[in-house]
Amino acid sequence: MANIWQQTLHWTPTVQQQVQFQQLYEFILEGNSQFNLTRITDPEEFWEKHLWDSLRGIVSLLRDEGDEGDEDVISTPTPPTSLSFIDIGTGAGFPGLPVAIAVANSTVTLVDSTRKKIAFLEKTRTVLNLTNVKTLTGRAEEVGQQPQQRQTYDVALIRAVGTASVCAEYALPLLKQGGLAVIYRGNWTQEETKALENAVNQLGGIIELVDKFTTPLSGSIRHCLYLRKVAMTPVQFPRPVGVPNQKPL
Ligand code: SAH
């Protein structure tokens, strides 16, 4: 897949990163035999939906400005400064684990409400020797109100956890001012962007970019929404467990 990484993300994994991706795949297959982690087990599908998709959402953060659009430059995905990421509702570790593998100079905190998923991720971290990964069991609604977590992250990632406004309510409180939330979506429409604006504004954010792209193997349409935190999130957000879902902003 080295060519496709390079052509689509202008990035090529090192040998060590390739080994870690392979170990991750094998470890997830093994974990799947004990309890259901992911329905995606075919190798190419795993590569596209779990590895490639995870990194597609953050690649724009990682490129040096001079590299933009320059196909000849192999940019290593190393942000100029170390960033702190949080992956909310990470499940089997997506998008957080591929990000931690690709961006070794940053820290990635994986959050999930299911204890056994976090237990699995702790084993994965050890097997893959990912010293930049932290884990946290909890609901996003509670984590976002913890003083040691709130307003402490540069980037919040969230994929397949809820509607976009729910994701925004989970993510924005956790960001420092100036931080970025990346919401991974499949289909997305302009009407949805309009509808989301009000929720994002209430949370101290703006919709900075809606990025539409096609996946490289199956040609599926996907979107990433980039929300910038431009003001403090009011203290009442995130609301108590379940409320964001029941009464979306
Ligand atoms: N992000 C992963 C998993 C998506 S499935 C991926 O894209 O593959 C959704 C996951 O979010 C589940 O593991 C579930 O336990 C977790 N989750 C759902 N609501 C949550 C909440 N309020 N706080 C924390 N985790 C949550």
Structure notes:
This protein is of the alpha/beta class and 249 residues long. The longest helix has 20 residues, at 15-34. The chain starts with a helix and ends with a helix. Strands 3-2-1-4-5-7-6 form a seven-stranded mixed sheet, sandwiched between helices. The protein has ten helices and seven strands. Helix 2 (15-34) packs antiparallel against helix 6 (115-128) and helix 3 crosses helix 5. Bound molecules: S-adenosyl-L-homocysteine (SAH). S-adenosyl-L-homocysteine (SAH) binds at residues 89-91, 94, 111-114, 117, 139-141, 159-161.
Q: What's the main sheet like?
A: 7 strands, mixed
Distance between the termini: 41 Å
- Structural class, from secondary structure content? alpha/beta
CATH topology: Rossmann fold
What's the number of domains? 1
Tell me roughly what share of residues is in helical segments: 25-40%
Write the CATH homologous superfamily.
Vaccinia Virus protein VP39
CATH class: Alpha Beta
The rough form would be described as: globular
Order of helices and strands: HHHHEHEHEHEHEHEEH
The small molecules bound here are: S-adenosyl-L-homocysteine
Low-confidence segments, given as residue ranges, are 64-76
Cα-atom Rg, whole angstroms? 17 Å
What's the architecture in CATH terms? Answer: 3-Layer(aba) Sandwich
Strand line-up in the sheet with most strands: 3-2-1-4-5-7-6
In total, the number of strands is 7
Give the structure's gist in a few sentences.
This protein is of the alpha/beta class and 249 residues long. The protein has ten helices and seven strands.
